[in-house]
Amino acid sequence: MADVPPIHGSCDPRFARVREALVENFRSHGEVGAAVALSIDGKPVVDLWAGWMDRERKHPWRRDTLVNVFSVGKPMAAACLLRLVERDELDLDAPVARYWPEFAAAGKDSVTLRMLLCHQAGLPAIRRLLPALAMYDWGRMTAALAAEPPWWPPGTRHGYHVNTFGFLVGEIVRRVSGETIGAFFGREVAGPLDADFHFGVGPEDDHRIAESLLPEDGERAIDLLLAAEAEHGAATDDERRLLVRRTYLNPPGASGFATVNTRAWRAAEMPSANGHASARGIARIYSAFACGGAVGGIRLLEAETVAHAAAEAAAGPDVVLGRPSRFGLGFQLPQPGSALARVPRGFGHFGAGGAVGFADPEARLAFGYAMNQPGPRWQNPRNRGLIDAVYDSL
Question: How far is C-alpha 31 from the geometric centre of its chain's CA atoms?
Fold first, then answer.
């Protein structure tokens, strides 16, 4: 049983169980540093943080600490695209090639924006091996994706686009708006909401970025993932092994293994994997989603757009994850076994290791959790404990 560090911040007495769950994460589940935030009707009711920013436990987690939250950034990129849809600058059912002509290559001329957003485009990975750290070269990555043949007929199946989603969505935003995804997101989403969430962080913020304790050996991590799938009866033939390895490890460093704490990683704009945020920043953006698209007089999206994005667009066996998954347009949706199972009308997204943000429009509730010690990839007891505590308190 581990020592529990001091818990800082504020917590409405109604949600005292959330504070208790955070304590339990440190006591029993290996938490190193973490923060959790909760708002209802756009008003913060939980804002807690504790622990350490680094492996050596020398630097305490602070109120303004940022940490890499991995795929929690995917819906943020989707929100950028949806803002352009609302302005009639994009059409969800138009082919991607209308806005990105090179994308029509290799049989992708019928792939629509909607297919990209719900992971049906068949582009979870690039087959041709790219040089290490090529993910920092936006042009090289998007050119490779434009040339890539689909791994399955687009629109017929879905598979989680782990690292490619952000490049695909971000390139469309760039071509239509003329801005990089990081600049557009900062100006149109995070900035107006005063949300501490970023794609591309400068060196002036290094002092407040927590060290991610993600394993450095990506090859071993993926070997363990495939071995675990085999133990649970999933197919692990050569084609699947190739797909999984290319998804997570091409180019080497793309998933953050041995790269996540570098200055180059922090500076890059990779919405699938390298969003840096506080739990408070995550919850702030989700508070708009939870309240019909607007919070504090600031409208992020129209209520109809939010509802459309939160509706099921793809569900069933996931080609990449090797288990069932459910997606809206950029959002993960609740399903049995997920920590979001208690939020049947909710929508959000998990990040590698356990970070999560979600909205519950029925309760007008928004939640954010960020941490630096990765936990189980699926059915994480830390985020589940916090989410259960929220709903036990309502």
Answer: 20
Q: What is the CA radius of gyration of the chain?
A: 19
Report, as residue numbers or ranges, the catalytic residues: 71
Q: Quick one: which of 332, 333, 338, 319 has its CA closest to 383? A: 338
Residues 6+ apart with CB under 8 A from 176: 84, 89, 90, 99
Q: How far apart are CA 126 and CA 339, in angstroms?
A: 31
> Could you tell me which residues are beta bridge partners of residue 291?
none
- Give the integer Cα–Cα distance in Å for 233 and 215: 25
Entry pTM: 0.97
Please report, for residues 9, 37, 64, 177, 283, the alpha-carbon distance to residue 47 in angstroms, rounded to integers and kept in the order given.
Answer: 6, 5, 11, 35, 10
pLDDT in tens, the chain (394 residues): 688 999 999 999 999 999 999 999 999 999 999 999 999 999 999 999 999 999 999 999 999 999 999 999 999 999 999 999 999 999 999 999 999 999 999 999 999 999 999 999 999 999 999 999 999 999 999 999 999 999 999 999 999 999 999 999 999 999 999 999 999 999 999 999 999 999 999 999 999 999 999 999 999 999 888 887 777 666 678 889 999 999 999 999 999 999 999 999 999 999 999 999 999 999 999 999 999 999 999 999 999 999 999 999 999 999 999 999 999 999 999 999 899 999 999 999 999 999 999 999 999 999 999 999 999 877 899 999 999 999 999 9
- Cα distance between residue 38 and residue 390, in whole Å: 9
Q: Which two tokens stand for residue 305?
A: 């757009």
Tokens of 181: 């995804």
Q: Cis omega before residue 251 (within 30°)?
A: yes
Tokens of 335: 């399903």
**How far is Cα of residue 342 from the mean position of the Cα atoms in its chain?**
20
Helix, strand, or coil (residue 329): coil
CA-to-CA dists, residue 387 to 121, 340, 347, 383, angstroms? 31, 8, 13, 6
Closest CA to 374 of 353, 352, 351: 353
CB 367 within 8 A of CB 40: no
For 306-335, give one letter per residue: b (16+ CB within 10 A) or e: bebbbeebbeeebbbbbeebbbbbbbbbbe
